[in-house]
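step 4 of 6: structure.
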Amino acid sequence: EAGVTQSPTHLIKTRGQQATLRCSPISGHTSVYWYQQALGLGLQFLLWYDEGEERNRGNFPPRFSGRQFPNYSSELNVNALELEDSALYLCASSFKATYEQYFGPGTRLTVT
Amino acid sequence: AQSVSQHNHHVILSEAASLELGCNYSYGGTVNLFWYVQYPGQHLQLLLKYFSGDPLVKGIKGFEAEFIKSKFSFNLRKPSVQWSDTAEYFCAVKFRDNNDMRFGAGTRLTVKP
């Protein structure tokens, strides 16, 4: 069974640009979660999508947004990039909202 | 606010020592509890989980955790650590009233051979 996949592996952008990160969940999983893992800060919850709808978002500004497609894959968009957006962005999926989450390898975003 | 705290940022042990990593969460009603591990260069993996039933749960690689409801705690234990257990360990709590998932800041475990 294929795990959660994310692309790209690395992304380098300059301040003010936009970044798009992609995630494909495990087959059969309908919930997708996005987290930011910045150095020394653990995992900070960003967004949760289930059945195509945004169900919850963490304490991040509106320039962090995303969507979930009919095939349950998801996209995270970060607009007007700032230096402090540099982090590892993790995607996770679960069968149902209350079940355990399975994580992808992450996308390392570097903003210069 | 719902939160999860892990007591230790960095733990250093010698091989064969016993391990206990603390995890506490803020009160929030019914919870599902998890421990995840991130080995160097690898992605987060589920170590064990608690949903209901026996509060002592066993996971992979000899790890276990005990849910103590009265203390809002879910501590991770291993009787005898190995060098290969060197990793970062994250406690996570799903608060069932709003399905919010919160992670602790993580504990870095270094096991000396």
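step 5 of 6: annotate
 - Chain B has a mean pLDDT of 93.
 - DSSP finds no helices and twelve strands in chain B.
step 6 of 6: archive
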